[in-house]
Amino acid sequence: MRETIPDSDGSERAPATPYNDPRLAVDLGRGLRLQNPVMPASGCFGPEMGALVDLNQLGALVTKTIFYHPRAGNPSPRLAETPAGMLNSVGIPSRGVAHFLEHILPAYTRYQVPTIVSIGGLSVREYWDLAARLDGVPGVAALEVNISCPNLEAGGLEIGANPRHVAAVIEGVVQRFAGPVIAKLTPNVTRIADIARAAEDAGATAISAINTFVAMAIDVRSRRPRTGTPTAGLSGPAIKPLALRMVWEVARTVQVPVIGMGGISNAEDALEFILAGATAVAIGTANFPRPTAMHETILGLRAFLDAEGIGHIHDLVGTLRYEPFGAVGTLDAAREATMGPSWPSPEQPREPR
Amino acid sequence: MSVFPPGVALQVLAPDPSERPPPRFAAAPITAQYRIAAEHYLLRLRDPQIARGAPGQFVMIKPTRALEVHPQLPRPMAVYRYLPASEEFEIVYRVVGTGTRVLSERAAGEVAEVMGPVGQPFRLRPGLAGLLLIGRGIGTCSLTAAAERAAAQGARVYAVVSARRREFLVGLDLFARLEAEVLAVNDADGTSAPARVGAFVAPLVEAGRVQQILVCGSHRLIALAVRLAAPYGVEVQVSLEAHMACGIGYCHGCSHGAVGESEEAPLVCRDGPVFRCLQVEAA
To answer: Which residue among A197, A306, B3, B156 has its CA within the 20 to 30 Å range from the CA of B277?
Structure first.
């Protein structure tokens, strides 16, 4: 645990470290303030990592998705490595909310950084019930609503790919949970910006983008899928350019803060997402080979501010420089012609926050 | 508990009261790497903490040099030998894919990113007089550290070492050094039939010369060991293999399948890789 020292006004304040450098502090809305913009991606983290690294140095902690009722998850094998990435078909085993509150949440809340609880559901109602149960629970700083898991028998994609269902889930969660509500989007949609807007309109205070891509790998000798379920979720460096494009589209569309994720392994990757419009970033698959990846990313962001003479990480958010009528503009025009003007015109990129 | 293989139930071992170093993530210097057979390599690394781990524990090792992104995942590998005097430990592995091939190209003088020691160790009984090890293929390398520990505690070591081909037999030099009684068998020579292995194992069990059996690398040999050992009250522990990403229990990638609709089977990384085996009615 981090030691605290009294501030001049009598309040307790952590001693200055590279990880709580005020230039890295970010605000994700409705009181969710982080000492720095780096957190783990749900499912790629647990308090077990506290044995290896200091979790008080992160921006936030994010739980594995919990369900209201216990569920076993999918058959093995649940993992397969693919070029510069991995497939998982874990399927979110969860021992249910009661077990979570009694046995798992305390392992998070012993740390001083905010804990974001990821919630899942096989029905709209299950999300709502979880939100009600978690409202007012000490130590639950925010909910991340996982409307995007590709490995569920029901719920994840069916809900996350449909703006009306997304709106219903988020509206109900916001009504029942008074704190910040983050909608975590799936990339397995045609126009992610439409989903993001639906979530924002329904009251989401931030958007996480993206979850894994539905994908597969086959063992040609056994002619069987390499994971226990035929399809699985792809993550890792392989998806980073795809994730970046989607985060950019989302950030141009919504006014609420965006948490960018998808193949981020280091500070340079994180900076790409921040320039594309992410206020904070999450690191997932990179935690497996390198449990220090999040810490190295934080230090790298700080070094970048120093090297570039930038006063605050905020000053970089959404500051991508591009020519609206260049190659990107052409893509936008083609998109608009085929899909209709459902997102902001490229001539008016959103103001940096 | 889950049923695996048929006729055998896995039981998670009770918490181990012995003092063990906590896991850590470190850049460990590679102090030696050499080929010990056609497809097998021995890798020696230096890390004072991992060198004090327990037999049956494993490490997660990133095959590539630090910044490469493929292959991305670290590989779980059993510790073949602990060398605490020199703060080193050894891994023996077979090149089977990209990760192990890349690892085999690393050389002494480089560092490898490793996390460990992790997992539940084998539980050797105090005052153990005889220990039987049954290893198949590279799985034998999960048993060698336990053989050394048991021999150092005064136990007589017996070993069945099995493989598909004679050149894939591993650990024979180590077992010879421990003056173990060894049955080495392989499929190519037609010597690895269960009846032949059973003929070696059964007298040891029946005569009470071994009190524990440790198995790794073959479901068939696990079933054989349990069947022969159960009537005589000889305990069987196994070390399981699984695909892993985190190695310490949070990714749930290595769960040994589901148990019913709402219960997840044990995690091989955290609840195992060592489990006790019990005989049950075959389904």
So the answer is: B156
